[in-house]
Amino acid sequence: MDIENINQLCDMVRECSFGLHKHLRHGHLEKIYENGLTHRLRKLDVAVQQQAPVPVYDEDGTILGDLKADLLVADELIVELKAVRAVHDDHVAQLLGYLRGSGKRYGLLINFGSPKISIKRYVLDPVS
Length: 128
Hints:
The protein is of the alpha+beta class. It has helices at residues 3-24, 30-43, 89-102; strands at residues 48-57, 63-73, 77-82, 106-111, 118-123.
């Protein structure tokens, strides 16, 4: 997928997230936001999987197991959702680990758990 399509996909996820947060505010369990974001993206005909098994590869290509991405959007974008007061380094490390292990390049870390929604995009440069 080219960068223009990834940008459009990220914009759609952001807009749906903002709308969901405006409606629900903070204070719900992560699963509620996961279900809500999935519902809103599917209404826009965006392919999205919840708790999607994403294979993790060793450097030689051997599959080491699967991780469970909160959302896998268009088979390209890993979305990690949180419902916490503040995002911590461990949350960022989790998403970056998912990107590194799966070979995916793009991820969003979205926190619905504070009065102001937090959305941060991560791009993992391919190893040369």
